Amino acid sequence: MLEKILHIADHMKLLDIHTKSSNSKVAILTYHRVTNKQNDWSLNPLPVKSFENHLKFITKTYNIISLDNLVNLIDSRKKIPNKTVVLTFDDGYKDNYINAFPLLKKYEIPATIFLTSKLIGSGELAWNDKVGYIIYNTSINQIKMDGLGEYRLDSNFEKYKTFSDIKRKLIKFDEVKKHSFIDELANVCNVEISPHIGEELMLSWNEVKEMNENGIDFGAHTMNHPILPNLTLEEVRYEIFESKKMIEENLQKQVKFFSYPYGDFNQDTINIIKELGFKCAVTLDQRLINPEKYDLCTLSRIDGFEDLSFLKLFLLDYGKYFYNLVKLKNRIITNNASFFKIIMNRK
Ligand SMILES: [Zn+2]
After folding, report:
1. Phi and psi for 140 in degrees, rounded to 5?
2. Coiled coil where (predicted)?
3. Is 2's pLDDT higher than 50?
4. Which of 185, 194, 280, 333 is the most buried (most CB within 10 A)?
5. Rounded Cα distance, 245 and 233, in Å
């Protein structure tokens, strides 16, 4: 599929692979889950082998530094080494400890994990994981609900499409409406969510502490993973401040970095980030960072795509061309499960 896209791009003279240079730009990579459980109900997992292949490729080709190091270099206006990459993880999934942490140690790679603080060691699930749990654990074959429409659930691909589409619709709901909708969905699907289910999925504070002592840094990612621009200012302040405080109390060190859930923010969110003393905040906008035109409150990141070819394409700064092509070739994409997943993951 990638070959097809590159062929079209070449034909349209969009790419100039031989002369392209993105050496001076910095890439912050975003990962979520690293696990071999491919039919899991949570986010798209990146298989452990693929993650290791990423690390092998990056260590060979790029200069990997910590987010702290990058921010210090930017702050002190020092030159950032060519081909610099920073690794980050969002949410705080347990498989970061079980699968990613041993590999990060093996390759001596620093990383920052952004924690949805209230979910750590609590047994609770984020709202998006609740939707996934319901969709993947129901025995019904289709859903029909007022205000939602009709969805098929008769294959894993249909379940994935349904899960992604419901999530996208719920993102526009306010918090109260969203939670009552999820309760109703659980009812319709006849699925009970155990209050301990999050213990299997999310990190415990002991795991966080162990990683903190072994080269992994931690940032805040709110308490409950809401869409911040949907909240009142008071709620936004609570979500960000309490998340930071909870990590600081557990690790006894200052939390300097923040990641916007779903990459969503507005000027009010940025003001609160500055007010609370964060040194930087990261987005999910699939771009490299140009060290001459950066904003520490909205540092771009790109996804750690499962397919190494995609990752290479984005590291070469061809992401924007890729998405233009995707728009043109929409028909191919909706018929292809792996492409569909990439597009649905885009924020
Ligand atoms: Zn998140």
Report:
1. -80, 155
2. none
3. yes
4. 280
5. 18
28 CA distance to ligand 1 middle (Å): 15
Cα 10 to averaged position of ligand 1 atoms, centre (Å): 35
Q: What pLDDT shows up at residue 196?
A: 87
C-alpha span between 33 and 58 (Å, rounded): 18
Among candidates 26, 28, 22, 25, which has minimal Cα distance to 263? 28
Q: How many A from CA of 3 to the centre of ligand 1?
A: 31
pLDDT at 31 over 90: yes
State pLDDT tens for residues 147-175.
Answer: 778 889 888 888 888 988 898 888 888 88
Number of Cβ atoms within 10 Å of the Cβ of 227 = 20
Instruction: Pinpoint the alpha helices (H) of the chain.
Output: 2-11, 48-61, 67-75, 94-95, 101-106, 127-137, 156-170, 175-189, 198-201, 205-212, 233-251, 267-275, 308-315, 319-328, 330-334, 337-345
Contacts with 232 (C-beta within 8 Å, 6 or more apart), sequence order: none
**How distant, in Å, are the alpha carbons of 13, 242, 250 from that of 117?**
47, 8, 10
CA 176 to centroid of ligand 1, rounded, Å: 19
For domain 19-123+204-345, give the CATH number.
3.20.20.370
**Residue with token string 């347990």:** 94
CA distance 29 to 308: 13
Residue with tokens 């397919």: 307
Whole-structure pTM value: 0.85
| Alpha carbon of 114 to ligand 1 centroid (Å) | 8
Helices 156-170 & 127-137 angle (0-180, nearest 10): 150
Distance 260 CA to ligand 1 centre (A): 7
Contact 274, 256 (CB under 8 A): no
Pairing of strands 149-152, 142-145: antiparallel
